[in-house]
Amino acid sequence: MKTIIVPVDFSEQSEYALKVAASLAKKQQSEILVLHMLELNEAMITSSEGFHPEQTVFLLKLAEKRLSEFLDKDYLKGIKLTPVIKHFKVFGEVNEIAEKHNADMIIMGSHGSDGLREIFVGSNAEKVVRHSEIPVLVVKSELPGFKIDNFVFACNFKSESLSAFQKARDFASKLGAKLHMVYINTPGDDFLSTNDAYEKINKYLEMAGAGQEVTIYNDYSVEKGVLNFSESINADLIGIPTHGRKGLSHFFMGSIGEDITNHSKVPVITFKI
């Protein structure tokens, strides 16, 4: 893992993400690209009426100063940091930066859920997930000494998720984490007998060319199953596939992907299908 992108808006949540990135960067000898997006628009920058070029320069210099102060932290000492400031808040630009610098992953903060409404849905984190071609790790709380020992990967064991599984397996290997694959068996039309579930899983693993152990976990919903299984093995990270711009909700039925990300007590990482 050579390069990690961390979008920051100077919030507490973005610092949580930066600390996790720093922890991983020290172990993997990675560079961190710290990305800050200004909320300027093209009209403000190009207009000759009411907004002058020197004002744009002033705002950029102000952002550079604030970003420099934000990065003056002891936990970042010894890590190669590259600040990147963009004029616009265009989340598609994250892909361009990732491609230009051959980045391996994005780590960013999110408020998660406050118990009254879902913050992740419609948030900056969700927009980055929708656009990103590389894995996105969403962090919602401070995680001192972040280390991934147990990594849960949940999917529907259909061929469409094979590429995401390969990425998750490679990610676990790089970090020396144990990969726990889980199939959530729920009541209703989607319920499978043990034999049928194993037949589905074995066909999937055969296509993947993997000898991976898989747990069949029974629960009342996929979201509850993923979260309860993860808690039962003391998982450090949950991985789920996503169709990207179609959103997390298009992998699982309904909005399960977003529900998992909102309600998980541990970070969630998404892998593009």
From TrEMBL:
Pfam families: Usp (PF00582). It comes from the Bacteria. Residues 1-140, 149-271 form the UspA domain. Belongs to the universal stress protein A family. PANTHER family: STRESS RESPONSE PROTEIN NHAX, UNIVERSAL STRESS PROTEIN UP12. This is Universal stress protein UspA. It comes from Muriicola marianensis.
